[in-house]
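the two lines:
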Amino acid sequence: MKRSVKLLILGTALSIVFGASAQASGINIGPEQLKLPVVKSGEVSKYQKIVALADGSAEIIAALGYKSNLVGRDIASTMPELANVPIDTNAHQVAVERVLSQHPDLIFIDANTSPTSALDVLAKSGIKILKIPSAFSLASVVLKERAIASALVVPKAEKLLEVKMSSSVFPKSKTKVAFLYLRGNASIYLVGGKGSGADSILSKIGFTDVGANLLKTPFTALSAEELIKLQPDVLLLMTKGLQSVGGVSGLVALPGIAQTPAGKNKRYVTVDDSLLLSFGPRTISMLPLLQQAIAKVAGS
Amino acid sequence: MKKLALYLSLLAVIVLLFIASLRIGIIHLQTPLWDLIGKHDGIDATTVWDVRFPRVFGAALLGAALGVAGVIAQGIFRNPLAEPTLIGLTSGATLGSIAVIATGAAAFGSRTNVESAVLFAGLAALLVQLLAPNKGLGFLITGIAISAILTALAGVMISISAKPGVQSLSFWNFGSLAMLNNQTLKIIAPFIELGFISAFMVSRKLDIYSLGENSSHYMGVKPKQIRLWAIISLALLIGPAVSAVGAIAFLGLLVPHIVRLLVGPSHRRALSFSALIGAIILMLADLASRTLFQPHEIPLGLLTSLIGAPALIILLRLRSAQWVSHD
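prediction for all of em together
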C-alpha cells in the first residue's frame, strides 16, 4: 500500500516536471542592450537648430555627432540618448506652435509627417523644410543617412558613420522565423510578409522569413491556417506586442500559434518596439544580438 | 409531411456544409477527412480538429442560437423588428464582457466572462422593458437608445484599458469566429444549451401570448412571468455568443422572417426551423469569410450584413411575408 502511494507521488512529481506543456524559451532584446554608434568628424553643421520630424531622423543626426544641434524630434525616436530633446508631435501630428517656438533653421520631414496643413504653416514661416526618404528596409538606412549628412554638409561624418554601420556577414541558417505584429487590446494580429521590414532584417542575419516567402503584402491579418501553413520554428515579436496579448500564455492561445513548432515549444524572441523596425544606426548594432537570440532559442 | 421533408432537407444541408467546411480552407488536406478521425498529430489533423472544427461547430451552434433568439425576441416583444441588437441585449452582453476583461477580473473566453455577458444582456433587456413606453415605436427607440449608451460605455472602457484580450470595438461590433477554440466552445456550449431548453419551453406559450395580454391572461398565461422567462432565455443565448465572437448582425432579425415565410407563424415550429436556418446561414458566412479573399479574412458581421440586409429588403417586398405585430 505504502509502495503504491510512493509510486503515485513520484509519478505526480514526474508529470509536473516533465509535463506535456513545453517550457517557454524566449529572449528579449531591449534598448539598454544597445548603444547608439556616434562618430566625431570635427565638421561644423551648416544648420545649428534642427527639428527632426522624419521617422528616426533624430537618431541619425545624433549618430553623425550633432545631437547638440537637435531642438526637437519626432515621437518615434525614443532612444535614451535623446531623452532631453523635446518631442514635437502630438499623437504623430506635428505641433506647429511648439516647432515655431524652437526657432529651427532646418526641419526634416518624410512621407509620414503630417498633417499637410501644419507643414504648410511651417513652410510659410520661412524655415527650410527638407523631405528625406523613409526607410523600411536595411538597404534604405544608408540612403536616409546620406540624405541627412548631405543636408548638413558633413561628408566626413557621413563616411565615418557608414563604416561604423557596415554590418558583419552572418551564417545561413535553416531556422524558419515568422514576424508577428500584435496589439491584443486593439484586436490587431498581423503576420509580416514581403516588405514588412522584418523580412530584410531576418534575411540579412541568415534566417528564412516564412511570412515573406508566402505573403506578398507587408502585413496580413493573422489567420490560423495561414500560420499553420508557415510552420515557423521561432516567432519574432515586439516586446509590447507580446505583453498586449497577455504574455506567452496569451500568445499560444491565439488562433493557429499552438499548432506551429514555435508555438508548441514556446520559442520566441521579442525586440523593443522602438527598436525593431526603426531602421537607423541602432538597427545595425541590433543585428548580431538578434541573430544570436534566434539561434539560441531555435536550438533550445 | 411537407414540413418534415423540409426539416430533414435542412438537416442534410447542415451535415453537408459541416463536412465541406472541415475540408475547405487555406491548407489543402493531403489526407481524406475520414482517415483523420481520431488522429491529433500532423498538420492536416491539427488543422481540421483544432482550427476548423471549433469554427464550424461554433458557427452552427451560434447561428442556431441567434436564429432562436430572433424568434423569441420578436414573439415576446410582439414586434417584427425586435432583434437582439435592437433591444439592448447585444450591447449589454458586449459591455458585460468588456467590463470584466478591462478591469482584469476575468480573461477573454473565460467562464466569468460568459457569465458577466449573460447577466448584463439580461439586465439590458429588462432596462429597455422597464423604460419603454407601451405604445407605438417607443419600445424600439428605447432599445436603440439603451444600446447606444451601453456601446458608448463599452467603448470608453476599451479606450482606457490596456488589458490583454479587451479587443477592439470593431471586433465586438462586427464579430469574428477566428478567436473561437475548443476550450471556449466547451465553456459557452452549456449556457447556449440551457438557452435552447428555456426558449423551447417559452415558445409553447408564445402563441397564446401573441394574442395580447388580456387574452393570454384569460387563457392561463401570465404575461409578466413569460416575459421574464423569455428575457432569461435570450440572455442565455446572446450572452455567450457575444462574449466569444462579438456581435453578428442581422441574423436574429432575418432568420425568423425567412422561417415564417416557410412554415407559418407558430412559434414552436418556427423555433426549430430558425435554429436550422440560422446555423446554415452562419456556417455559409463563415466559410465565405475565411475562403473568399485568402489570405485575408472578412469580419463575419460584415458578411452577414451584406447578405442579411438585401435579403431582408427582398422579404419586405414579398407580400406573402407573414408579419406578427400586435400593439
